[in-house]
Specification:
Its cofactor is pyridoxal 5'-phosphate. It catalyses: (8S)-8-amino-7-oxononanoate + S-adenosyl-L-methionine = S-adenosyl-4-methylsulfanyl-2-oxobutanoate + (7R,8S)-7,8-diammoniononanoate. One of its GO terms (molecular function) is pyridoxal phosphate binding. Pfam families: Aminotran_3 (PF00202). By secondary structure, the chain is α/β, with parallel strands linked by helices. It has two domains: 3-61 and 332-418, Aspartate Aminotransferase, domain 1 (Alpha-Beta Complex); 75-329, Type I PLP-dependent aspartate aminotransferase-like (Major domain) (Aspartate Aminotransferase, domain 2). Helix content is 37%, strand content 17%. It has helices at residues 3-13, 51-54, 63-73, 87-99, 113-130, 151-156, 187-201, 226-238, 290-297, 314-328, 331-343, 371-380, 402-418, and strands spanning 30-34, 37-40, 44-48, 104-110, 138-142, 175-177, 205-210, 214-215, 221-222, 241-245, 269-272, 284-289, 353-357, 360-364, 383-384, 391-394. A seven-stranded mixed beta sheet has the order 4-12-11-10-7-5-6, sandwiched between helices. Strand 2 and strand 3 (44-48) form a beta hairpin. The structure holds pyridoxal-5'-phosphate (PLP). Pyridoxal-5'-phosphate binds next to helix 5.
Length: 419
Amino acid sequence: MSAAELLAFDREHLWHPYTSMTDPAPTRLVTGAAGSRICLDGVGEVVDGMASWWSAIHGYRHPVLDEAVRGQLDRVAHVMFGGLTHEPAVELARRLIDLAPEGLDRVFLADSGSVSVEVAMKMALQYQRGAGRPGRNRFLTVRGGYHGDTFDCMSVCDPDGGMHAMWSGVLPEQVFGERPPGLGGDVAAWAAGFRALAAEHADRLAGLIVEPLLQGAGGMHPYPAECLVVFREVADEHGLVLVFDEIATGFGRTGTLFAAEAAGVVPDVLCVGKALTGGYLSLAAALCTAEVARGLSAGDSGVLMHGPTFMGNPLACAVASASLELLSTGGWAADVRRINTGLQALHGIDALDVRVLGAVGVVQLDHPVDVVEATEAGLAEGVWLRPFRDLIYTMPPYVCSDEDVAAICAGIAAAADAG
Ligand SMILES: *Cc1c(COP(=O)(O)O)cnc(C)c1O
């Protein structure tokens, strides 16, 4: 099929994320990718400012990651995980336990970020049942969050962003605290309100789930690390299972390997995904403490009630281990610092707000972005961006050069102008 035929078929038959099938937004045809660049039909090579939704941290066609997939393909691509195990899964779990905050040493391998959040929520609910508190079946969270698109995940997403009004009667009703203040904001005032809310609802609450340090798809909102201490204290005070969803922040994005480290806080359950496989395959994990694992097993069923068909997929585990091996050399930290320095140029853009944290740069406009116009303007500067709401942002691959980062900043400036 020609490029035109591919695009025509796509437009007629394929759903893309959050799009209409009757009035689809334009899509671009990718013909290849390498390093920090993707190739678009009719456009040519552009710098990828999105790292494929924050996952391709080592860039595309990385020789070590390519080889990990090829090598595993010669052994076995997939086998069921029920009653069977394999070296790639064991090796990955070993590495994750090694890298994760101390004590998170029980690993559930899930096939996507949303599923890992579902599993984390199940862990919390089953834990409370095991403790003889089945009435604790709600979750405490904060406004402005994003935890995935399946129903339980949606129930803890921002009520407005997650369109809870549209789903009322369908979604479980959770308890929402105010969004933590931005960097430099008044943590004490926010914390007082959050503690009071937790106390008010404590006897109904199973867990507390948040994205630590940076709310991603809910609004690209970085917040002070002290808030993580508040989350830990509130969870301890009321017997809640503390879940950190690090699907966006994990693996160095905010400047520490895990965002939890910024405050030295250890959650009871940690979700990772997105960059786990370096953006190669869909894989996520929910790690929990031995205490949570023991507690949830004390319930009626005695088992964790989850087991996806593609659990522990060997290809995905092999490439994830290779990605963690690349991270373990530590070069990512200098890359993230370097990118952070380059992204400071965003502060020169005239906008409602500019926020830079780790290898994340966000420009907030005073109006919703015209995504088509902004995308075009970015491409004209040789940069792939995917703005949403009033936000034009970047989470580039760690391998992008200083020139790439400068191009991304120029692309964002042009997109902000056009959009
Ligand atoms: C992307 C994301 C998810 C959902 O992951 P999927 O793999 O898309 O299901 C959940 N939580 C956070 C914080 C995310 O950024």
